Amino acid sequence: MQTSDDKNPIVNLSGYRFVSLDEPEQLQTTLRGSLMQTGIKGAVILAKEGINVSIAGSRVQTTAAVSCLNQHVAIKDLWLKESLSPVMPHKRLRVRVRAEIIAFDGEESDRLQSTRPPAPALSPHQLDSWLASEKSMVLLDTRNDYEIVSGTFACATHLNIKHFRHFKEAIHKALADGELDKSEAVVTFCTGGIRCEKAAPWLLAEGFREVYQLEGGVVNYLQQTNESHWQGDCFVFDNRVELDKKLQPTGSGLCDHCQLAVKPNQPCKCQLGPHYHATY
Q1: What pLDDT does residue 32 have?
Q2: Residue 10 pairs with which residues in a beta bridge?
Q3: What does the pLDDT look like over 137-176, one tens digit per residue?
Q4: Angle of helix 194-205 versus helix 167-176 axis, rounded to 10
Q5: Residue 204 half-sphere exposure toward CB, CA atoms < 13 A
Q6: What's the rounded Cα separation, in Å, for the pair 246 and 253?
Q7: CATH code of the domain in which 183 resides
Q8: Which domain holds residue 127?
Q9: Which residues are tagged catalytic?
Q10: CB 3.0 to 4.6 Å from 174: which of 67, 97, 110, 180, for a disulfide?
Q11: What pLDDT does residue 1 have?
């Protein structure tokens, strides 16, 4: 646990769990009431397939929020990755029920996810070791193209997708074009791990021989290693926009034209002008 201070008083927690929730609407009502009382802000997404959490507040508020989550057996002891920031990155608290906690399969997500073979997790240190030894593998970035602009692994393979729901189509195209081979070892990664929990089992079900998922995603990698193989910053889906290798906000905003992350007083990489507006 990091120690919050006057410069970074806000605790940011993010995590997820794929677990069967028979009545997500009922859990939504209960959690909304209890979490509102803690004063935290952020988003909690519920579906029959599980929960996805991204919340922030003071240490007292987030501790109380975790206690609320722990009152429910199915979501007790969630692995919530932590980072600190100087100001609140969310405007309000939202607790929503959706078909999926991350868009991929649509309405059949709960059934399809449960029938796919699980993919083994690869620790950040093991990935570092494989990269250092130049192990033969495809390091597959499952994130969206605008996230990759902020930063990625130097040797990563990118699918150039606009949204994760386009992942399957992009894989089929890469196979048809000879850019991927099902016999190759594949290590998938994303920001926090949730997209790889969908992508890696799907790849195995599609006949890929050897597939892994980076445990805890990029956020866990940056926390657990010396970040030597990561280049740039890490795009996040809240008003912080980008985090540096120490998981501190870079001060970036979003380009009004293309929505890429833009640092203050710098032109956007889309080359259409600065278009910077602060979100944080």
Answers
A1: 98
A2: 85
A3: 999 999 999 999 999 999 999 999 999 999 999 999 999 9
A4: 40
A5: 19
A6: 18
A7: 3.40.250.10
A8: 116-240
A9: 190
A10: 180
A11: 54
User: What is the rounded CA–CA span in Å between residue 99 and residue 113?
Assistant: 12
Query: 10-residue block means of pLDDT along the chain (280 residues)?
Result: 72 96 96 98 97 98 98 97 96 97 89 88 97 96 96 96 96 97 98 97 97 98 94 96 95 85 83 58
Give pTM, 2 decimals.
Answer: 0.91
Examine the fold and report which residue of 59, 76, 104 is the final residue of a domain before the chain moves on.
104
CA-to-CA dists, residue 153 to 128, 140, 247, 271, angstroms? 11, 9, 16, 23
Partnered with residue 85 across adjacent β-strands are 10
Amino acid at 200: A
Whether residues 63 and 131 fall in one domain:
no
Amino acid code (one letter) for 197 = E
Query: Is 271 strand, coil or helix?
Result: coil
- What is the rounded CA–CA span in Å between residue 261 and residue 148? 10
Which DSSP string do the residues of 215-233 spell out, in sequence order?
TTHHHHHHHHS--TTEEE-
> For 97, what's the count of Cα atoms within 13 Å in the CB-facing half-sphere?
13
Query: What does each C-alpha distance from 119 to 78, 198, 209, 272 come to in angstroms?
Result: 20, 10, 11, 41
